[in-house]
Amino acid sequence: MNYISKIIMNSLYGRFGMTDTFSDIEIIDNKELKLEDFKGEIEEIIDFDNHKLLKLKNNRSLSMDLNDSTEIHNVNIAIAAAVTAYARIHMSQFKNNPALPNLYYTDTDSLYFDGPLPQHFISPSELGKLKLEGVYDRAVFLAPKVYALKIDEEEVIKIKGLTKDAIKNNNITIDSLEFLLNKDYKLSLNKISGLKI
């Protein structure tokens, strides 16, 4: 139940900031399908036994005039912006705070320190508090969403744009990422080996 609540909280506010103009979907029996009826409109075709699901381009033109009340959109950029701004304000108490351990890396919803935080910041279930995900012996932070963590023989490597398979197939380790701290070292990656299909 906690997981479902977290997913709803983390995705609901983003829905307010997204466009509400979706592609049209048609499910048509293979015997009745005439592709020429959808000339230039089809974005994608998916086979389902005796039917095809057609994802069609949305050709409706939208009026962006604020005074035109003929269209109603379920969008509110202010809600999405306010939620993310409040999250940044909440996370700012952990940055450049001399009362806390040294902060090495932070992302939207995570922080990496070189020591433990005071207990009043930590709770595995209380809303607004931090959850301790792990304590690592070694870490390398290269760029946003590019880092590696190690405890004993277990390594956690995150590189934006690469799947776990691509990281494994390219033999990327915490040691190889640590070499990138030297300005003369380069790492070549084969991204194709990790594409999701």
Mean pLDDT: 82
- The order of strands across the largest sheet is 1-3-2
Number of helical segments with 4 or more residues: 4
Categorize the overall geometry.
Answer: extended
Order of helices and strands: HEEEHEEEEEHH
Query: Over all CA atoms, what is the radius of gyration?
Result: 24 Å
C-alpha termini separation: 30 Å
**Helix percentage:** 10-25%
Uncertain stretches: 193-197
Strand content: 15-25%
Structural class: alpha+beta
Biggest sheet statistics: 3 strands, antiparallel
In terms of quaternary structure, the protein is: single chain
Overall strand count: 8
Concise summary:
It is built from 4 helices and 8 strands. It is of the alpha+beta class and 197 residues long.
Could you describe the 3D structure shown?
It is a single chain. This protein starts with a helix and ends in an 18-residue tail after the last helix. It has a domain at 99-194. It is extended. The strands form three sheets. The chain has a three-stranded antiparallel β-sheet, with no helix packed on it. Strands 6-7-8 form a three-stranded antiparallel β-sheet. It is α+β, with helices and mostly antiparallel strands and 197 residues long. It has helices spanning 2-16, 77-92, 164-169, 174-179; strands spanning 24-29, 42-48, 51-56, 103-107, 110-113, 138-143, 146-151, 154-159.
